[in-house]
Every structure is written in structure tokens, then in C-alpha cells.
Description:
The chain has a six-stranded antiparallel sheet. Strands 3, 4, 5, 6, 7 and 10 form a six-stranded antiparallel sheet that branches. By secondary structure, the chain is of the alpha+beta class. 46% of the residues are buried. The chain has helices at residues 52-71, 79-99, 147-153, 159-163, 202-205, 210-219, 222-237; strands at residues 2-3, 8-17, 26-32, 40-48, 106-107, 109-114, 120-125, 129-134, 137-141, 184-188, 195-200, 244-253.
Amino acid sequence: MTPATPGYRLAAATGLHRGDRAYQQDQVSVMAHARVPGCLLAVVADGMGGKSGGRKAADQVLLTAAQLFERYTPSRDDPAEALKQLVLESHLMIKLTAMTAEEEPHSTVAALLIGPSRACDVIHAGDSRVYHFRGPEMLTRTKDHSFVQRLVDEGQISEDEANTHPQSNLLTGCLGTHSDPPVSLHHIDRLEPGDSLLMCSDGLWHYFTPRELGAIVHALPPREAGEMLIGKARHRARGGGDNLSLALVRMEAVD
């Protein structure tokens, strides 16, 4: 937990579960800035690539994030450029890892960077998502780089149909592929007390509507909300669940 501006604080929690898979390939981290109060970086990476390959890719995303954040100075550095660098450097390092291994490691990434001014920048590649809630209401969410999202955008299927589409796990962009990853940035001018930012892999969001997510993250403290989300996702997966990961950050007023 790290202080934000006077009268507010940032409360955060993470959650990680192997689901019904043989290997855990997701990784998640929330990092408070070592020198600047109210500055925070959160990252979710969903690794893909069989056995240890996906975990190596996700580990590389978090290692790169930690190294970049250690050098990051909010008063000097541009947050959107820092997030872009995180994605591109992680992509390069994953590709280099693939050259020395038999696996083909890939990873999604969803990351957000909150500054001491209460501004927040978001980046993602793949189908790990970032949701922004004000109270229980969803204001925005990232759009997946996936085949079914393209079908939704083109009006061929609905959001509900996308969840049960047989090709729902087919990505159009991520880290570690031959093509450069998509770099989708979003800026939030100012977080307000009661705002929550939920980042999660598809192993979690697949089982919830935005309304359900908003109700849970608003009603409970971050740690309890994360535990409830993972518990409900595990129940709804009925023994066929993917790895799941989440990071939840909430801006809270201090009395």
C-alpha cells in the first residue's frame, strides 16, 4: 500500500491461480516506486508456449518491467513512452529467449502506470484486460487483440457470443511473435476516490460480465475482491479453467 496525494491512498492486491492446467504460466506484480510516493506500476502477463515456455515469457515481461520502473522518474519521464518501452523491450527479450530454447514463448501484457498527479496510463497487447470502474460502473476497458474482438468490432457477433466462440483464444497480436506487438495506449487524466483498476488474464474475465466485476471490486476491499473473483471463476470453470491472474488497484479516501 502506498500513499497517493494527501487525503488519498492507493490500495492494491494481486491474485494468481493455476486453474486446471498442469503449469502456471501467468505472472502478475504490483510495484510501488522506490523514491516517489503515489507512483505505482502494475503488470499482468499471460504466458503461452507449452510447459516452461510461456512462463519464461511472462517472467521476462515482469523482469523487464521491474528494471524499467527502477530507472523511471515521474517528473522527467513520459509514462506512455515508458509503457511502450516495456512492451517493445519485453517482446525483444522473449524473441531472444526463443532462439536459445526449443519452446516458442509468447505472452500477453496488460500494464498500468499511476503517477503522483493521479493520472494513469494503460497499455496492453493480446487479450489480458484492464478495466476502469468508478464505484461499480465500468468507465472503460481495453479491447482485446483477438480474432473474436475483430468479429465483434465488425458487427458479426455479439460480446456474449464472443465468449463462447470456438476461436475465442486466437490472438491477432502479442509478445514474442515474428510480427511487432500491437501497442494500444489509453490515458486517464485523473483517478478519483472510489475508482478501481482491474487487470486480469482471460482465464479470469472470461467468466464475468462487466457488471459483475464492477459490483465485486466496489463492494469489497482489494484482497477480498480478488479472492472472490478467483473463487467464482474457479467454480464457473467446472474443472476446465485456464491459469488466471489479476491485479486490483483502488484509490481510497483517507479520513
